[in-house]
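Researcher: Last one for today. Full complex below.
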Amino acid sequence: MTSKEKDTLTVALIQMSMADDPRSNLDKAIRRIGEAASRGADVVCLPELFRSRYFCQEEDHSKFSLAETIPGDTTAALSTAAKKSNAAIIGGIFEKRTKGLYHNSAVVIDSGGSIVGTYRKMHIPDDPHYYEKFYFAPGDLGFKVYEAAQSKLGILICWDQWYPEAARLTSLLGAQVLFYPSAIGWFDDEKDEAVKMQSAWETIQRSHGIANGVFVAAVNRVGKEDHINFWGSSFISGPFGEVLAKASPDKEEILVANLDLGMIEQTRHGWPFLRDRRIDAYGSIASRFID
Amino acid sequence: MTSKEKDTLTVALIQMSMADDPRSNLDKAIRRIGEAASRGADVVCLPELFRSRYFCQEEDHSKFSLAETIPGDTTAALSTAAKKSNAAIIGGIFEKRTKGLYHNSAVVIDSGGSIVGTYRKMHIPDDPHYYEKFYFAPGDLGFKVYEAAQSKLGILICWDQWYPEAARLTSLLGAQVLFYPSAIGWFDDEKDEAVKMQSAWETIQRSHGIANGVFVAAVNRVGKEDHINFWGSSFISGPFGEVLAKASPDKEEILVANLDLGMIEQTRHGWPFLRDRRIDAYGSIASRFID
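Model: Here's the assembly. Have a good evening.
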């Protein structure tokens, strides 16, 4: 461990509901960042696409007007908030890259207010009322880590959370915490399956922590928007998959946890999975299917 | 779905304790296979290295005498049992490949008594009292699927269970069920951590089912041998990670579940993870670390 690395990192997840007016969502997010900082947060993470309601429930050209550039209004506001609160911020942005080209992105802003980098969602879903392939081009920046709060932060967005490859590659780059800004929920007619769905959602993300010996921090929105009942349940888990903090399924909350980063090395000593990977035998992972 | 594929598959896991005498372990396994078949099993899976106590707790050259060839005495006995019970069998073997070269392997025998294939454990652990790198060369057959009981069976062994790559590659080959013959437990001084360890063990294996939309069947031994309290808790989970059947932590049991194989396609339609994999961006998985 170098002397510049932190021993502990206080992480805050802003579980919130979104109103129709993007301005009011930003205002609320900024207030919550201030509250999180007053609770000692070194890093504050907002949900996916937090500026607006989850517009991907219909394919509607008019919704492209919600997109903005990076840097842009939202990054400017987050930058000011970061400086004021002396905390790093991760925020989801509907990114307008050029005319007619959009990404589902997240920016990392350090406590000095500078944009450290942008992550563009790599795995884009497309299912009834999650019509993301209509709105977003797949990310072309690859998997990355971002240095902020004297730590290495991995950012993955929602659908990415189902892919062990994304977590592995981000961890191999040195990530200490995998953040998953999310927007996921159940339809009214799925109520019987909601428990199973939430369990799977939590299980797979905790498993990424186990496989890689890293922390996981998943933040979801709450409330019903059109078809989707967003299930909240934001959580933070440790490098052996243990849940350290968990939010309610239906209330706005600031979920805070103080992460003992030394647990990464300690866990990997006890369970040295990285040592024994069969890198000589993994090449076919880059196949769609092996038939 | 082709007409030759089964709609349902009855799987039985033999959770057992091992005695000093390899012959008595084989006799018990054979009896249990018969009992499992009488309960309708199409496939019966025995624990890792079921012929003997878990000898890897010390580095002891004399233990190489426990190894045997494939085919050999154990496969002959399992072949007879398979024909008699009309069930496919998966059994762990301490494989002697040639003088001084050994593998931690498992054979798949079909209900006609033929050896379908051998899997050689790819990820070899080495930790206090799990000195497997002393005994076993890493597998060189790669990840495979085995056709038996009109199904495609994936076999991975114990330490392999912590590696998402192993589950992914086996699933991309078409596996419908991932079997994990295992030998895992806790030391007396780990009693406080045992719950967390078992939870991580179950979580990561259930997650492989979720990521790939397949069934998982993990079978462990029970009882204390020298340093290790083997924690049993064999389980079978479904393609969205739901636990379908689970054994006790400390008793011999035959765990049986009737798998609705149609759930694989149904689950993948609802959660089409295979469709959206970013195979253009996974190449670095074959790196030890990205630094």
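Chain A has a mean pLDDT of 97. Helices of chain A lie at 22-38, 73-85, 132-135, 164-172, 194-212, 262-270.
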